[in-house]
Automatic annotation (TrEMBL):
Function recorded in the entry: Catalyzes the hydroxylation of the N(6)-(4-aminobutyl)-L-lysine intermediate produced by deoxyhypusine synthase/DHPS on a critical lysine of the eukaryotic translation initiation factor 5A/eIF-5A. This is the second step of the post-translational modification of that lysine into an unusual amino acid residue named hypusine. Hypusination is unique to mature eIF-5A factor and is essential for its function.
Matches recorded under PROSITE patterns: HEAT_REPEAT
Tree of life domain: Bacteria
SUPFAM superfamilies reported for this sequence: ARM repeat (SSF48371), Clavaminate synthase-like (SSF51197)
Gene source species: Paenibacillus hemerocallicola
Keywords assigned by UniProt, alphabetized: Dioxygenase, Oxidoreductase
Stated name of the protein: Phytanoyl-CoA dioxygenase
InterPro entries listed in its UniProt record: ARM-like, ARM-type_fold, HEAT_type_2, PBS_lyase_HEAT, Phytyl_CoA_dOase-like
GO MF, one example: 2-oxoglutarate-dependent dioxygenase activity
Length: 463
């Protein structure tokens, strides 16, 4: 767990036989030759792949990171790196082109799977460990780069937001990698892994990555069921690299170091542990004209937890030079979670905002706060008709997070099954499955029967 928090990845190995992986590879070769890339229909067409995700090693790892009720996103992709390819640029996967705030808490993760032995000359996927919370790369390219190689069956469980690439394939062998995305549905109330530590300890296998000790400690505490980072002033100052400590004003000044993302993030997390005066400094950062400074301040306020709630709610009514500032505030309220329930009426008002950025983060926050359901559910049902695709998807995801308490949204979810966006339709079906009432199942089962995919029907065998 410490390695995933700090480095953004862990590598997994299952005990499936090499013959099993060879059979998957052979079927992929046949399918790609005759039908091309299957995209989201990868699992229905090659159903053996689903067995990987039912394996105790994989299920246990996903449960540890995302909690026991995690779900698989409808998007999955078979990456095909042909022999002789030149590779692709380093990148983070996006949110359908939307500039959604990237969560520091692990609300999502990806798995990369190799059905064949992959060596470095075959153009493997490569990651930059420790970069999952960095929006920018260094100018000198000094980040540590880790090619993911291994025997057939190798899986890498990675943070969704990590920088990664496909390396040039200088071999004579085509290389496959299958990618799958997963979501957490509920904030942790206790550790979902076999935790034997009472306090945060860094990974014993630390690679040469930037040190973000306060951030890592906060994420570990959140995963353990504690929503806020609480440390003494001296401890926070030492963790920030200042033996004699820095004033709150000095740390607040660091928030605006846009060219030094690492230092500004460290300052935000140091401020999060220093009480009300430091919270006021972070609130001041929300009024900065730079979206980068506003975002960094929001990260610090989310880490401050319930102590920051009064100031965050008040900030919703304070004019800002940044038009999207309410979206950053909504993000922080959502990450604080259920204790922010008194902010729900104000967040619901934001669903009428002109900015899709603001609306999508208000919708996300409602699903994370979860209560009171009698206010949340009607608002989220209406949000399923938002003009923005990702806002509608997030409304479906938020209703899935509410589960059985979202029963009144079944009619809205029924309409969403016919949404022109495939992912909105898919998450609506997941929400109905999670609600699981008779009414929900009466809507869901006919839809699934009509949408049934036959893995035996191919272009060569139509009937």
């Amino acid at each position: 767990m410490a390695q995933f928090i700090s480095h953004g990845y862990v590598q997994l190995q299952t005990d499936f036989s090499q013959q099993f992986h060879q059979a998957v590879l052979q079927k992929m070769n046949e399918v790609y030759a005759s039908e091309g890339n299957l995209g989201n229909n990868l699992v229905p067409r090659i159903p053996e792949i689903q067995q990987f995700f039912e394996h105790p090693t994989v299920r246990g790892a996903l449960t540890s990171i995302l909690g026991p009720d995690y779900i698989m996103h409808a998007h999955r992709h078979g990456h095909f790196n042909r022999a002789g390819s030149k590779g692709i640029a380093w990148h983070k996967d996006n949110y359908w082109g939307n500039e959604k705030i990237r969560n520091h808490h692990p609300w999502s993760a990806m798995i990369f799977y190799y059905p064949q032995d992959v060596t470095e000359d075959m153009g493997p996927s490569s990651i930059m460990p420790g970069t999952h919370n960095h929006y920018k790369l260094s100018d000198d390219g000094s980040e540590y780069k880790l090619p993911i190689t291994g025997k057939a069956g190798t899986m890498a469980l990675i943070a969704y937001d990590i920088w990664h690439t496909a390396m040039p394939n200088t071999s004579a062998i085509d290389r496959y990698m299958l990618k799958f995305l997963f979501f957490r549905l509920e904030a942790p109330k206790h550790p979902s892994w076999n935790n034997r530590r009472k306090v945060w300890e860094p990974s014993s296998n630390k690679l040469p990555i930037m040190d973000h000790s306060l951030m890592w400690e906060h994420v570990w505490s959140w995963l353990s069921g504690s929503s806020a980072l609480k440390r003494s002033t001296n401890e926070a100052a030492r963790a920030h690299g200042e033996s004699d400590g820095r004033s709150i004003q000095q740390l607040a000044d660091c928030l605006s170091y846009e060219s030094d993302e690492a230092s500004s993030l460290d300052a935000a997390y140091a401020l999060a542990s220093l009480g009300q005066d430091a919270i006021s400094a972070l609130i001041g950062g929300l009024r900065h004209p730079s979206p980068t400074v506003v975002r960094t301040s929001a990260y610090g306020l989310a880490a401050a937890g319930a102590e920051a709630l009064p100031a965050l709610v008040e900030a919703l009514d304070v004019p800002s030079e940044n038009r999207d500032a309410p979206g950053y505030i909504a993000y922080a309220l959502g990450e604080i979670g259920e204790s922010a329930s008194h902010a729900v009426p104000r967040l619901i008002e934001l669903l009428q905002d002109d900015s899709a950025f603001v609306r999508m983060h208000a919708i996300e926050a409602l699903g994370m706060i979860r209560q009171p359901a009698e206010l949340l559910v009607p608002a989220l049902g209406e949000a399923l008709q938002d003009e923005d695709d990702y806002a509608r998807f997030t409304a479906g995801l938020s209703l899935a997070r509410l589960g059985a308490e979202a029963g009144d949204a079944v009619p809205a979810l029924k309409r969403a099954l016919d949404d022109p966006n495939r992912y909105v339709s898919a998450i609506a079906s997941t929400a109905l499955q999670r609600i699981r009432s008779d009414e929900a199942l009466d809507v869901l089962l006919p839809f699934l029967q009509t949408a049934r995919w036959c893995p035996k029907t191919t272009v060569k065998s139509m009937y």
